[in-house]
Design a protein that fits this description.
Structural class: alpha/beta
Largest sheet: 8 strands, mixed
Oligomer: single chain
CATH topology of one domain: Rossmann fold
Helix content: 25-40%
CATH architecture of one domain: 3-Layer(aba) Sandwich
């Protein structure tokens, strides 16, 4: 296998114009990329949301001012971590650009986290400040005292929408839809106040190096504890340039007559959207169409009717939902050049339907938070659905290893997918043992996914080494869910597996054994899980049992439970 990998046979599958390796020295940091793009494209719209355009020049000035504010906060030093907990709204790119320009480290947080999940991430990262939308301030209130956070910048949905429109949006969100539960937080500074407190010129310019930490991107842990993948400036930059090179043949198929438009339906706190939507789009001088709630397909399609767009990163569930919506054909899909499917497996039927309706193939890719995230992808010019995760992108090597850590030599033989490239993380935050376990001696990241590779260099995932469950592109680790359920006094033991689901790819199924003489209902379990787990982690199905299958030493056999479920569906 090593000889196979060293020869990089997949390069023969690259479309014309895609190099084997991209120049990784184009930028020294994400700050340089932002600075140059903001100036180069100053008059172009960078983001649009609900009819409000924000130009690159506006983004430049607002993020400079906010960066100056962050720099002068008491106790804030270069390299300190700042959490951002917001959906896809105009404040998000301002906050991210400000954090990086201030010489600080971004901690992306899922805004739907429960207090338990948020507390862990804030404590683990050591974040000193948080920029959060008021819709979720009540969650922060519940755990703030247990964290190192001393500075809170509070955003409202309509902050950057303009006076009257912004006030109307905030009124609807707060009073009509009642999406802002009451909260009490100390020493809060409102987002617009933080931006207006300093002139853009007050920013002390910083020049991070390629080896400096840019972001902590949290991923689930096999032990149930989320780990922060340390993404350096050079890691994310490399992936931006790799993805840019991969995009070009698709964009070049037909001449562009408009500013390149990116549909931003995936949440920007997710590494896929962060790299492809925010950073790549910025580098290209494109416009991001922000969709705060992609689950509202009516609103998504209504918004897309207003725009010209060329790039659509998404997940299988989103593509499937849109393609079967009654308003799908009201959108002008004729400008779409690149559709990238990631996060979860794209289904053949969905890919076929999408291509027939848009004339733009879904090119399925693969990656992890630990790889910034893109490691492989199908060529964007290939109309045929392969069912594979494609070939390694430029500057990237992939191989398969067996249980003993040896390279798999024979084509078609299974092995764990391992990845090496400039986009691979520096390691897990403050977890050297976890880092060591995840890397091979020759510098490859072990993914936990079992795959095969063909003679052309196309990799296909066939199984998962870890017990991870993939729900609509989000990782769910059974241990975390089990730990939460086990907190219920009536539960003697429990186990969690993933079961096939036509909408989300997989769904969480929980098996529960109760203590003798105890009672507990499915409704009570689900209520407990809602309090402690983000929605996608919550069990969709619950089954009560008298006992669970175990090894001779008493370890619960999740695989046996999975096999039982698969047998039911056979």
């Amino acid at each position: 296998m090593s000889a196979f990998t060293d020869s990089r046979p997949w390069l023969k599958q690259y479309p014309e114009g895609v190099p084997a390796d991209v120049d990784l020295n184009r930028y020294s940091s994400l700050v340089q990329l932002l600075n140059e793009s903001f100036v180069r494209h100053a008059d172009k719209p960078a983001y649009t949301m609900m009819g409000r355009d924000m130009t690159y020049g506006e983004l430049d000035r607002a993020s400079r001012s906010l960066a100056a504010y962050l720099q002068q906060l008491p106790g804030m030093q270069a390299g300190d971590r700042v959490a951002v907990m917001m959906p896809n709204i105009l404040q998000y790119p301002i906050a991210v650009a400000a954090i990086l320009r201030a010489g600080l480290v971004l901690v992306n947080v899922n805004p739907l986290y429960t207090a338990r999940e948020l507390e862990h991430q804030l404590k683990d990262s050591g974040a000193k400040a948080i920029i959060i939308i008021e819709n979720f301030a009540h969650t922060l209130e519940q755990c703030l005292s247990h964290t190192d956070v001393r500075h809170i910048v509070l955003a409202s949905m309509g902050d950057r929408m303009g006076g009257l429109k912004g006030a109307l949006v905030n009124f609807v969100v707060r009073k009509v839809k009642k999406m802002v539960p009451s909260f009490q937080l100390p020493n809060v500074v409102r987002f617009n106040d933080a931006v207006s407190r300093h002139a853009p010129t007050a920013l002390r310019e910083v020049t991070p190096g390629p080896e400096d930490l840019a972001a902590l991107q949290y991923t689930g842990g096999t032990t149930g504890v989320a780990k922060g993948a340390m993404l350096l400036h050079r890691n994310i930059l490399a992936n931006v340039l790799q993805c840019g090179a991969w995009y070009q043949p698709g964009l070049a198929r037909r001449q562009l007559h408009h500013q390149i438009g990116f549909v931003c339906a995936l949440p920007l706190y997710h590494i896929f959207a962060f790299t492809v939507n925010m950073m790549l789009c910025t580098e290209m001088g494109g416009k991001n169409i922000l969709l705060p709630n992609p689950r509202d397909l009516d609103a998504v399609l209504k918004e897309l009717q207003k725009h010209v767009f060329h790039s659509f990163p998404g997940v299988n569930t989103l593509f499937n939902g849109l393609a079967h919506h009654a308003d799908f054909n009201k959108v002008d899909w004729s400008h779409l050049r690149v559709t990238v499917g990631g996060g979860m497996a794209v289904q053949r039927a969905v890919a076929k339907d999408w291509y027939e309706k848009t004339n733009c193939p879904i090119c399925e890719g693969y990656g992890l938070s630990e790889t910034s995230p893109v490691a492989s992808c199908n060529p964007v010019t290939n109309p045929e659905f392969t069912g594979s995760i494609g070939v390694p992108v430029p500057n990237t090597w992939m191989k398969l290893v067996d249980e003993d850590g040896h390279d798999v030599e024979d084509l078609g033989e299974r092995g764990e997918i391992a990845i090496k490239g400039p986009q691979v993380m520096a390691g897990y935050w403050q977890r050297p043992e976890e880092t060591a376990r995840s890397m091979t001696p020759d510098g490859y990241l072990l993914t936990g996914d079992i795959g095969v590779v063909d003679e052309k260099g196309y990799f296909t995932i066939v199984d998962r080494k870890k017990d991870m469950i993939l729900v609509s592109g989000f990782n769910v680790y059974p241990n975390e869910v089990e730990d939460v359920v086990a907190l219920l006094p009536a539960v003697q033991e429990c186990a969690v597996i993933g079961v096939p689901d036509e909408n989300s790819g997989e769904a969480v199924k929980l098996f529960v054994v109760l203590r003798p003489g105890q009672t507990l209902t499915e409704k009570e379990i689900k209520a407990h899980c809602r309090e402690n787990l983000t929605r996608y982690k919550q069990p969709r199905q619950i089954e009560f049992r008298d006992a669970l299958p175990k090894t001779p030493i008493g370890k619960i056999l999740r695989r046996a439970l999975r096999d039982e479920e698969l047998a039911k569906q056979a």
